[in-house]
């Protein structure tokens, strides 16, 4: 039995995903990664681990409209620049079956990442972040409302009261910062940034075929594709 458990552990493949909430390419990239994994007959071998990376640590705590956030964080840009970029991203997302709302609100994501760290300790980090991001880009969730985060947390099996306690304090702050520092040390200059089995890194949102190749590189070929 011990030997069998050891073999199972050795077959497990961890894919670490550094991302931030309002990053459109993170939204698209994580769905492409999921698609690549789901195509494999051994999809259960893979565990996606969520890591924290704030793109704009200086973002205000107060809500601001998407265009204001964009112009503030991209000196020299205009609202028209945002509309063009967002229109292109919406077309890309929609083509892949994803809902994409342009008129979003933004704010500092540090508190969200602190909850992600807690969720990760419970084995639900990726599930929690993914649900929050999908709701955010889908236009059905305000992730800067503490009670909204509590609701998502409970929907993925986390303790809502524990989330309230974390949001009311400063727990996990050091780990959020450490995650970002580690990504930079590994060569990341932005997100999404994915590391496969601690052997190969993939910056940016790659195509599904590229993620499939990387999965095969670190885990070997699957016996056959999953039936659709």
From TrEMBL:
This is DsbA family protein. It comes from Georgenia alba. CDD domains: DsbA_FrnE. The lineage of its organism: Bacteria, Bacillati, Actinomycetota, Actinomycetes, Micrococcales. Residues 14-215 form the DSBA-like thioredoxin domain. It comes from the Bacteria. InterPro entries: DSBA-like_thioredoxin_dom (IPR001853), Thioredoxin-like_sf (IPR036249). Pfam families: DSBA.
